[in-house]
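re the bet — no i am not wrong, look at it urself. input seq straight from the record:
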Amino acid sequence: MFYYLENQGNIQNTSQDLHISIGATRYRLKRIQEISHLDLTSSKDFYEAHLALQILIFLDDIDIY
C-alpha cells in the first residue's frame, strides 16, 4: 500500500516498484481495501490512508525505507 500511495494511485508504477505483475498488484490492493474498509478510489480515503501511513513512519511504528 505504501508504494501505491507514494505513486499517487498509479498501479503500473506500483507493480514496477514491487516487482510483481499488475494483476497481483490489483489483487493485493483489493484485499487491502476489503480488510481495511477503505475505498482508495475515494480522494478522502486515499488522503487519510496516506496521512496515517506517514504518521506511522514518523513515529517509527513501521519501517519502510
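see?? Residues 1 and 46 are 10 Å apart (CA to CA). told u. also The chain has a mean pLDDT of 94. so pay up
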